[in-house]
Amino acid sequence: IPALLHQTPARDLDKFISRFLQPNHHFLAQVNKAVNTICSFLRENCFRNSPIKVLKVVKGGSSAKGTALRGRSDADIVVFLSCFTQFTEQGNKRAEIISEIQAQLEACQQEQQFEVKFEISKWENPRVLSFSLTSQTMLDHSVDFDVLPAFDALGEAPGCRPEKGKDRSRQAQLGPYHCAGEFSTCFTELQRDFIVSRPTKLKSLIRLVKYWYRQMPKGKGSLPPQHGLELLTVYAWEQGGQDPQFGMAEGFRTVLELITQYRQLRIYWTVNYSTEDETIGDFLRQQLQKPRSRPAWSPDSGWDLLAKEAEDCMSLFSYFKKLSFWTLYPTNCTLLRVQWWSGELCPGCECPLGSKRL
């Protein structure tokens, strides 16, 4: 049983992560081999006698990003199909598509040899297909997968990053939709690659933050999505100097400090798109300018609970009071004018995190 996190000295956090949080390397290799076999089987066998074609099969989730925790983790396999020509069509023919993919998963299970235990969830008329891969020797090591059919919004070969503003017809598809995140599976590759390209130590910090998040006491209320903390960790590292060999304790404290100041944060990236495009720019502004009646950090969002836990956690670490943390500056507002709850933050305004104003 790992020692409590707050009892781990600052100098030993890297060892704590390596010993208790990183998945077993042998099991990871077995899972990757099995997933490659499953993806190839689905790509080659699904809809063989149908006008529907499998365009590509993509791995997503923490296992694909390199941020999975030891024990039980989650991942996605996204099957991009030719029958979808826009986002809203993903609900079409769902029963037929799920039935075909399930049949091929079962065939793969019977015909292929695996070094891990391959179990398919049995549900009558499932909306989502699920299966698990479990170690034959370490039964507490497993990965739960969801298999998700999706529209190929990027239209690129696997591993390719779309050029900003390359296809305005795809960008224009955003126009009629206002449910942010509803079609996030279409962008699994971009979500994965955004993390995969980061230094190994940053992925270790993400693991540490995720572990801390999962230790939250149950029953106090809902918490924000874990994915938000992953992005917050990346932001802290980017703004804190991008040192690939940073101090783990300083990085961890910086993320906790950011969580306590969630009301002052509006973070976004333009790595995979350009706000110069009118449609994309308008869509992003809609996400950043939520109505004040339901701000993203309202009590029911769970950020207040998480901030309280972050404060409690920092008080438990005896060395945190003496520990330095990264100096961060306000989120970038040069592309978009962001309205803050307590007023406006003007481009060029500098206010280090340590001043408690951010």
TrEMBL record:
Residues 38-127 form the Polymerase nucleotidyl transferase domain. PROSITE patterns: 25A_SYNTH_3. InterPro entries: 2-5-oligoAdlate_synth_1_dom2/C, NT_2-5OAS_ClassI-CCAase, NT_sf, Polymerase_NTP_transf_dom. GO terms for biological process: defense response to virus; innate immune response; negative regulation of viral genome replication. One of its GO terms (molecular function) is 2'-5'-oligoadenylate synthetase activity. It comes from the Eukaryota. Residues 179-318 form the 2'-5'-oligoadenylate synthetase domain. This is 2'-5' oligoadenylate synthase. It comes from Spermophilus dauricus (Daurian ground squirrel).
